[in-house]
Amino acid sequence: MAHSFFRLTHFMGKRAPKMFAGTLVYLLCFTLVFSGIFLPSTGRAQVIGLDPLSLKEVPVPEPMAAFRATPIPGSQTNLNFQPLTAQFVKDQAALIRLGKALFWDMQTGSDGIMACASCHYNAGVDNRAKNQVSPGLGDTNFPGGDKIFGNSTVPFTANDPNNPAGPLTPPNPLFNVPGKPGFGPNYQLAQGDFSLNGWFNPTAEVPRGLGVDIFEELALVDGDTNDVIGSQGVRNTQFTGLAPPPGNVDAGTPLADIFNVVTPGVPNLNGRVRRVTGRQAPPTINAAFNFDNFWDGRASFIFNGVNPFGFRDRTSTLKRTVLVGGVPTLQNAFVRILNSSLASQAVGPPLSDVEMSWAGRSFPDLGKKLLALRPLGKQLVHPTDSVLGSMARGTLDPQGNVVGLKGLRTLTYANMVRAAFKPQWYNSTDIIVVNTATAAVQKASTNDPRNMVVSPGKATVVKADQVQSLALNPMAVQYTQMEYNFSLFWGLAVQAYERTLISDDAPYDRFVGSPKPIDRATGAVLPAIPPDPNALTFQERVGLSLFLDANEDLDPANGTLCSNCHIVPITSGHTVLDFGPDAQGVPSSLDAGIELMVMGDGVTANYDHGMYNISVRRTKEDLGRAGTAPNAAPFLNPLDGNKPFPLSLVDLTALKSQGKLPPDVARFIPTMPILPRRVSSGAFKVPNLRNSLYTGPYFHNGDSATLRHVVEFYARGGNFPNTNFRDLTEGMNGIPILQFPEFIPNAKTNIEALVAFLANGFTDPRVAFERAPFDHPQLFIPEGANAGNPDVDLMLTLPPVGSAGRATPIPTFLNLDPQDAGP
Prior knowledge:
- This protein is α+β, with helices and mostly antiparallel strands.
- The protein has a domain at 64-124 and 289-498.
- 17% of the residues lie in helices and 14% in strands.
- The chain contains 18 helices and 26 strands.
- The strands form 11 sheets. It has a 4-stranded antiparallel β-sheet. Strands 16-13-17 form a 3-stranded antiparallel β-sheet.
- Helix 16 (707-716) packs across helix 17 (745-761).
- The longest helix is centred in the last third of the chain and has 17 residues, at 745-761.
- It starts with 21 loop residues before the first helix and ends in a 25-residue tail after the last strand.
């Protein structure tokens, strides 16, 4: 990227909040000082370059593609990365249209209901409140994960019968932390269920240090559970085939599941409801700036065209048409596309047997299904939709309601693929025969409790007129080139659409202005936008100063450290801007992608920038960034005992320094020494805070219902700072100026100001009112099941919205006020 950076380095090595520069700093300082609020001092700063002041100055990183017929070489050979338009994309506008249609289309789900948007429909997240509870399936304290709903803090509660292993050290018989006994399949969440880790005094600093044990750490806890507030997907079903065209519901066999209302937590075929993910759905809006995506970053910055795991997949290929002796011939193509973690993320959920798919469906299967269907054939599309309006079959009645025919005017998704992509990726008449018995399958585990086909299997190419004469085995399935390459089309198209979902017009953005805003479509520099001192209220300006640690240098006890991790203007540190990858996709190393942190015991460790353990939950309940790629052949490292490749950049760099990475993987990893102490366990990506008024429940496990809960969490210094001491992020020591607001007026004022800024200062009105580019087609969203008949879904209807948006803002989670601390 052609950007220089202005970086501030904390004296202990941790990145400090970024500062403002030049005349805009003077103007902003004047505004804040006049209000009695101060900006941070630059006394400790090491100026490395110029950091963007406004999000309007930050481009969305451009995908760059390379492919080879032979395996990817090591770093001694540069890959010829080119813009997508060089070899893949024929028409960018058509690509975005295809991506938006795919993202919102309910026909994608095996059940003909679940779309990507089903979990990302409200400011890019999911705020449903019924049937959203999942037990601690990722909890490694339990063999195979915890499958009991609502159980208490385990394995430490004395009278908990649900953990056969029991605690390592018998607890005090009087110690008991209640769980959430009402939690279970089809449960209706309520305000009183939050926070999941509840406190008698939510801002009192949690005990930590030598001599503190779990009982003292939880002494003020009035309830706790390792359950997760996730997102409901599909009912547990085995994929057996596709319905004949134009069917949009796959064939499948129901499977017993723990998500049932008859024997919750114990597999049962009766009373099944929709399964629920083990983590919250992170926001899709502004996700284009992330370096890796998903909470654990398993959606790689490098898209391989097939699955989320990027360069960690060493064998999967696509099929490309080339001329051999003048004859069109299908050739294997190893694909590597930079700046494309959105594409890597996009190809995950459609095959997940929790989220959108019957177990065992492959991407060629999904292609065979969708390519024959009318796009959005079950949904109305607004005729003024900012992307799809020109193709919509719906019309407006005199009252302004969308009526008429559903879907788009184009007859099939195949037509949309032809319009968007170059023909060498779909025009062959040959047939690809895949042996599904050789498919690479991710098996459910505590590392990732989902089953999904991550690579379709060994393929043989035959001429169309020879297929009928072949003695095919029962596991062989036939696909066209377009069907076989559908994962490539899906990933790049959905990414192109999500790259348009940029929220950069919040009051904060208007407050700071922009000296050099850019046109993201052309890269042209636009006229400067002067700062507006009235864009934030006085209370919100106080909140901004707290967020930026404005008074920390005057009094270190006044620091909140918010912007240490939520770095403005993007409000996350796990971004392409921070990692600064070079033209070959190698991230910068020290003080960028890989950093140093002095841990609580004084030992210095390496960690992945923007991935932190903040002790929302105990580390072993979800290993996060310490996870790995699937334990399947394409992802196994022959130089490290055939273990699956780690997700963590730090752990991969350590393997490279030991000579334990194959050249095709090592080429994407920095070369540098790594310390023995590495921090990745329990670490999760820093989410951006844009539009956080609408993105509850918060944290990777949905712990908190309101922004007030979130601020209280940081005020007390986390939930399990002592249990997670070894991996705990520096700075999670509580925030004195936010503690005991019930007794200290300044603390009350500070909390309310910080919440007000987070709720309002980062909220883009286009998102709140679903104005372009945040408009969308109609969507029917399952929200729990009928109490008397679990097979019947209750449905939430999202009307189609055109470019002008809706009349009222979208709802907050449970319609709660962001300042609400609960009962």
